[in-house]
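Researcher: Let's continue the batch. This sequence belongs to DNA-binding transcriptional regulator YhcF, GntR family, and it's 153 residues. Same format as the previous ones, please.
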Amino acid sequence: MFDQGRPLFLQIAESIEDSIVDGSLEEESKAPSTNELSTFHRINPATAAKGVSELVERGILYKKRGIGMFVATGARERLVDERTQGFAHAYISPLLAEARRLRLGPDDVIRLITEHGDASDRAEPVAEQTDHTDRAGPAARDDQAAHRSPQEA
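Model: Same format as before. Here are the structure tokens for DNA-binding transcriptional regulator YhcF, GntR family:
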């Protein structure tokens, strides 16, 4: 369930982020409490609180005294922007660097992406990942990508 190589509190924060990004936790809606998170994930409440605090510090969640934590207005857009930048850093930059080494132009790269996408569409559908707790962050994805063959990337 959890990625042993990453701190649990970061995985808790990321699972909440995932819910915000995918729309299952809407802006201005109540976020899960520390107790709910600790019970659900069977972790220490202090660990869950540290994950929630991480999101509060970043302005993704805010506290309504006596009521609980809520998703901040604009949180989804901020998270999508952050993740887009992380995606570009983890995948697009290395892709373009390799394309330059191979002397591929922009049209060649677009053609390869389109062909690969078309081939993926014809392949057997892959079940959507629903356990958001073990998605890797950009740094971990960089490490994972370095160990994959080009066909897996």
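Researcher: Any comment?
Model: The two ends are 23 Å apart (CA to CA).
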